């Protein structure tokens, strides 16, 4: 069997907390269709993780994750840092550590850093729409790290209709995110 492996790291948005399939599974299905290869999708995500929690989870699972030999990876994390009011400086330190760990697993810079989606209408406490200012700061950090590391920073376009509660993707949102991530991965292949 001919296959490639995609590792996706994140929190409840990545794990698909409000949809049956998450965006990584939709991404893998799209990549299989476009490349005519099977795609093994490994979704290393858990609800409520902050960036440093994800980095520590990667530490605990490093050997297992490295053994899957991912060809490409993506990271989407930060909404729980936002909820915890983590400063941009501290977020930067944790995010850089996370990127380093993922790079050591993948073995190259085929890593897509997904910008944190802005909070949408209908968002519920503890989130508030005015937190989008901090999301802009975090996303600037993500773009700067991507540029300095030779990686892609990807902003996924999806309106209010893609979200279950203003934060988490619904089923159609997961599908849209997955297809857009697949497009970014195919861009990596073609340059």
Describe this structure in words.
The chain has a 5-stranded parallel sheet with strand order 2-1-3-4-5, sandwiched between helices. The radius of gyration is 15 Å and the shape is globular. Helix 2 crosses helix 8 (171-190), helix 3 (51-60) packs parallel to helix 6 (88-106) and helix 6 (88-106) runs parallel beside helix 7. The chain contains 8 helices and 5 strands. Strand 4 (111-114), helix 7 (132-149) and strand 5 (152-154) form a beta-alpha-beta unit. The longest helix is centred in the C-terminal third of the chain and has 20 residues, at 171-190. The protein is α/β, with parallel strands linked by helices.
Tell me the number of helical segments per DSSP (H or I, 4 or more residues long): 8
Count every beta strand, where a strand is a DSSP E run of 2 or more residues. 5
Poorly predicted ranges: none
Radius of gyration: 15 Å
Structural class: alpha/beta
| Largest sheet properties | 5 strands, parallel
Helix content: 40-55%
Indicate the mean pLDDT.
96
How far apart are the termini?
26 Å
Strand content: 5-15%
Estimate the global geometry from the Cα principal axes.
globular
Read across the widest sheet, the strand sequence of neighbours is 2-1-3-4-5
SSE run = EHHEHHEHHEHEH
């Amino acid at each position: 069997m001919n296959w490639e492996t995609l590792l996706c790291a994140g929190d409840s948005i990545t794990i698909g907390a409000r949809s049956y399939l998450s965006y990584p599974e939709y991404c893998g299905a799209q990549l299989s269709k476009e490349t005519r290869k099977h795609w093994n999708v490994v979704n290393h995500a858990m609800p409520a993780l902050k960036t440093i929690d994800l980095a520590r989870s990667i530490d605990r699972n490093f050997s297992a994750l490295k053994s899957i030999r991912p060809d490409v990876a993506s990271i989407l994390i930060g909404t729980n840092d936002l909820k915890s009011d983590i400063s941009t400086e501290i977020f930067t330190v944790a995010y850089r550590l996370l990127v380093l760990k993922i790079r050591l697993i993948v073995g190259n810079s085929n890593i897509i850093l997904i910008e944190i989606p802005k909070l949408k209408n209908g968002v519920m406490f503890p989130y508030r729409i005015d937190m989008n200012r901090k999301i802009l700061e975090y996303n600037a950090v993500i773009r700067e790290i991507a540029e300095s590391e030779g990686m892609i920073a990807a902003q996924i376009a999806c309106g209010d209709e893609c979200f279950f509660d203003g934060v988490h993707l619904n089923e159609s949102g997961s599908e849209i995110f997955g297809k857009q991530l697949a497009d970014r991965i195919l861009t990596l292949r073609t340059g």
